[in-house]
Design a protein that fits this description.
Elements: H1 9-21, H2 25-38, H3 43-55, H4 59-72, H5 76-89, H6 92-105, H7 110-122, H8 126-139, H9 144-156, H10 160-173, H11 178-190, H12 194-206
């Protein structure tokens, strides 16, 4: 027990990694809570607790932790953390607001724009999702996930040909990118290119 109460930064971080690796997330969270009891201003410990809470399927605590962090540090990353936790909690509209705040604070925040694009599709806002996806590929044109997001955004807007082109662009960048391969095969099938789609699906099945 005494070992778990040691709040030396290197010590508690090593312990958290150890218990996280073993899947003992409750113990890892308790270690961090103990650190925060002694050092409530430790932002790194607070962030660690929020991340562990999400991993332990406790979005309520994660939201609480990240909200308190945001009050002390209004960076894009803090808005992003809170948005992820809110989305996990099912608070999608609030999550959207915080993704947008992250992007207002830091327009080049890749993960916030990627997540926002996907969330807008869930919220049935295809035009806004497509707008975000186009911004994403304009800023990150060498990232296959960005083109994959554009493909899904085109799917949401029922533009199968544009979706196929976006997935194809992702595959030029990364031929083994599985989400893009599945998306490309689906788009081709919907465009009537059944033979090519069947070949791609067959290739994917061989991958197991």
């Amino acid at each position: 027990v005494g070992d778990l109460m040691n709040t030396d930064p290197q010590h508690w971080k090593a312990l958290v990694r150890q218990f996280y690796a073993k899947g003992e997330l409750c113990v890892a969270r308790d270690i961090v809570r103990n650190v925060l009891m002694r050092f409530p201003e430790d932002l790194e410990a607070a962030h660690t607790l929020g991340v562990l809470s999400l991993a332990d399927d406790d979005p309520e605590e994660a939201v609480d932790v990240f909200r308190r962090l945001l009050r002390r540090d209004g960076s894009a990353e803090r808005y992003f953390d809170l948005a992820v936790a809110l989305e996990a909690l099912g608070e999608r509209k609030s999550a959207r607001t915080n993704y947008e705040m992250a992007l207002r604070t830091e327009p080049g925040h890749y993960a916030a724009r990627l997540n926002l694009c996907a969330l807008l599709q869930v919220l049935k806002c295809p035009d806004e999702a497509l707008e975000q996806a186009n911004v994403l590929v304009s800023k990150f044109s060498d990232v296959p996930e960005a083109w994959c997001a554009l493909g899904h955004a085109h799917f949401a807007g029922f533009d199968r040909e544009a979706a196929a082109k976006a997935f194809a662009r992702a595959l030029v960048l990364s031929p083994d990118h599985l989400p893009s391969r599945f998306g490309h095969a689906s788009a081709l099938a919907m465009c009537g290119e059944l033979a090519t789609a069947a070949q791609e699906i067959g290739d994917l099945r061989q991958l197991g």
